[in-house]
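We include the entry.

. . .
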Amino acid sequence: AVVSTQSTGGEAEVLAELQISFLVFLLGHVYSAFDQWKQMVDTLCRARAALKTRPEFYKSFIRILHFHLKETPSDFFVDIVSRDNFLVSCLGEFFRTLCDEGEGLEESLVSRGTKFKGHLEKHFDWEFIDSEEDLPVVVELPA
C-alpha cells in the first residue's frame, strides 16, 4: 500500500518522496521525477478509505501540495495536446470525497481541504465539481 498501515514512519516517507520528486523535477528538470510526483498525487487523491484512517497524513499532504503549487505557474499542469489539467481531475476526486464523506472525516481535515479548494479556485481559476450530481448528463437521442 502507498500509505503503510504499520507505522507513521511510512507516512513520513511517502510525504518525503513526494517532496523529493517535486524538488528533483523543479530544480533538476528531471521529467521522470515529475511523472513520479504526478502518480503519487493522483494515487493519494483517489485513496478514499485512507482519508478516514489517516487525517493527519492528509492534512500534511494538503499543506505540502499547497507549497508545491505556489512554485508553479497556473497553466503549468495543463496538457498541451488535450488541454486537460490532471490536477483538476485528481483534486476534484479528492474534494468530492471530502464532501461525500464529510461527516465521517475529522472536521479539521474537511476544513483544511475546503480552504485549500477555495484557494485553488481563486488563485488558479480552477473549477471543481462537488458531487456526481454536478457532472454533465449524457442524453442519447433516438436516430
In short: The two ends are 48 Å apart (CA to CA). The mean pLDDT is 84. The CA atoms of residues 118 and 126 lie 9 Å apart. The chain has six helices and no strands.
